[in-house]
Amino acid sequence: MAIVRDAAAGLRALQLGATLLQLRDPSATARAVEREAGLLVETAGAPLLVSARVDLALAAGAAGVHLPEHDLPVADARRLMGRDRMVGRSVHSVHGAVDAEAAGADYVIFGSVFPSASHPGRPVAGLEALRRVTAAVRIPVLAIGGVDGARAALCHAAGAAGFAAIGHFQR
């Protein structure tokens, strides 16, 4: 999953191998996010998730929404999105992952697994914590935080279904 700020970045990420896009720009206006989401839905050819905005995901016809850990409850997002669209949650613990699954999340993003340029100085969870999370839930777990090509293989070996990244898709 590539985490992108706009349609142009999303299209570049797809060229670099992303198979799922998350549109995330907390500084953008709702109108700007809706415009970029609409462009990606029309042109990307890959599922789009809108970060933290169920209303904009629905308005743009996105494949789903991705929720930060302390955002709208997953059950509420699921009720609004319906069963046909994806709902994901960022988590930082086994407990968070189990709760997200129980509330109806389709997947979780766990991390930071490694040191991350986008979140410098933050503590890292590591591969053992990733293993514990993947063992605790049945839904896909995506690793995030400092993941590159080589580290993606380590995350996969720890049970991750894939990875989410910002920098990896900005080359």
Task: Explain the overall architecture.
- The protein has 171 residues and is of the alpha/beta class.
- The protein has a single domain (2-169), classed as Alpha-Beta Barrel (TIM Barrel).
- Helices cover 39% and strands 19% of the residues.
- The chain is built from seven helices and eight strands; from the N terminus they run βαβαβαβαβαβαβαβ.
- The protein has helices spanning 7-15, 30-43, 54-60, 74-81, 94-103, 127-136, 149-157, and strands spanning 2-4, 21-23, 48-51, 64-67, 86-91, 107-111, 141-144, 162-164.
- Strands 1-2-3-4-5-6-7-8 form an eight-stranded parallel beta sheet.
- Helix 3 links the parallel strand 3 and strand 4.
- 45% of the residues are buried.
Tags for this model:
171 residues; TIM Barrel
| Mean pLDDT across all amino acids | 96
Q: Structural class of the secondary structure composition?
A: alpha/beta
Strand content: 15-25%
Largest sheet: 8 strands, parallel
**Number of domain modules:** 1
Low-confidence stretches: none
Order of helices and strands: EHEHEHEHEHEHEHE
Oligomer: single chain
**Top CATH class:** Alpha Beta
**Number of DSSP-assigned strands:** 8
Shape: globular
Query: How is the largest sheet built, in terms of strand order?
Result: 1-2-3-4-5-6-7-8
CATH superfamily: Aldolase class I
